[in-house]
Amino acid sequence: MKGMMTVSDKRVLLILPALIVLFFNSIFPILIVLNYSFQNPFATVPGFVGWDNYIEVLHDSAWWSAFMRNIYFTGITLAIQIPLGLALALTIRERGKFATIVSAAIVLPSLIPFVSIGILWRLLSMTFGPISLILKWFGIDYALMNGTNAFWTLVVMDVWHWTSLVFLLMSAGLMTIPDVYYTAARVDGSRKWQTFRYITMPGLRPLLILAALLRIIDSFKIYDENMILTVGGPGRTTEFLSMFLVRKILREWAGGFGAAASLIYLLQAVVMCFILIMVLNRGRGMLERES
Amino acid sequence: MRIKEKKRARKILKIVLYLFIIFVFAFPIYFMAITGIKTRSEIETQTTFYPHTVSMHNFKQILSGVWLRCIINSLKICLLSIALCLPLSFLAAYVFSRIEFAGDSHLYFWLITNRMAPAACFVLPFFAIYNNIGLFDTIWGLLLVYTLFNLPLSIWVTMSFMEVIPKELDEAAFLDGYSVWGYFRKVLIPVMKPGLIAVAVFIWMFTWTEMIFAYTLTSVKAKTLPVQLLVIVTRLGYGVDWGMAAAGGTISVIPAIILVFVARKYLIRGFVPLRRI
Fold it and tell me: For A33-281, CATH number?
């Protein structure tokens, strides 16, 4: 029964090594950040400043720009990636050799280091890269650091990068729907759209939600790709939260401010994670055992 | 006859579509690979889709000096990470899936948030701690940090593979006189081999590509490949040597390509158990 500690089961102790490592690695640092966030460690008279750091963060316009930019970016890329990944998964369903090769090609981008993705796209969008060449045929003048081009190139890059993960999850989800359902639907005279709506979509629901929420959470953490592609430029227009944080801490040495911002960032990630788990489990317990 | 023509047209359309998809996803990688072989002047003055003059200069530089050390460091850390995380997560997953104890779902939730947390949050404390303990710029220091992110994910995935194995197997084994460790060694691990391989793949993929921590916590001795790539791309002064960057990028992509083509059959199937967290 849940809630009753089975003390006699000594196997519980097996979890200790992992726990010790995690405790040292995660609780301890968070306590340190918490400590820093209430101080001003690099001031002439270091000492506690209470909630000042947090207030400063929430009033910082650069922070808000970065935050809103993240939301905007995540919204757009998700709106493209999820339908696209789903469409790809639906199109490539057979088991043939050719289909496997195509699937492998689609999955490839998600296994490449983020840095390399940044380099890849930087090469493509350089002054003499293929993108500007092809766009010239259409009469469009393209330069990476021109106005909003940087942002949109980032969007395209992100879509290219992560549609593969969505595709992967959707394909796995499609595999779990038993063929019997489809046969039954066909026998009952269901048309393609109806089959899709009443059989495929509900079957895909858990993995669809997983894909969406994984993407939302990971998308907020973006750092490597935009660091290489645009280094936050032009100006600060593509500076996202992670970059903002690293800049504040490592370049401007704003210790207390950085610590407070880190914690706000972490809190937001935890909240999103919580929502992810709640939605996925929909009332069931987290470690629901299927006996 | 019309139906046959329609079917044939459909098939051709499908093949064209597939080829287009392969092109979209593979072309950028191809482009990066050939940029690594071009000469510097060619990269900066023309757009070419195949190298007009082949120069192995960049790749020769990659396999020596700083670059080689970075590649070896990355390899070392990946393998060590797998060696460390696999056993730990195996044990932890075993406990989570077989035994109930007070607060287990809370613990599990905390575990997962570790994976979801942005790396940038932890940069500050680790930087401060490591500088004081002397773990800065060491492989072991970086390894420790990576377990922070690898352990939760591996426990999570191992759990989903382990839950499929019925508890009755444990009980039968214990009845037959196996000790816990004997059971692991002779029964459970062989049964879970595909799952464990999947976990190893996940760990590899995160560790090989991670950059934020590597960048802040290393400088010379323990530098990894992604950091070196970042360094030459953001170097100020002479302008960026894109040929070198491309060559370095290509090297970083090779493990992924090998992986995908060796394991392509198991790739998608490996994600199926994630249906329920």
Answer: 1.10.3720.10
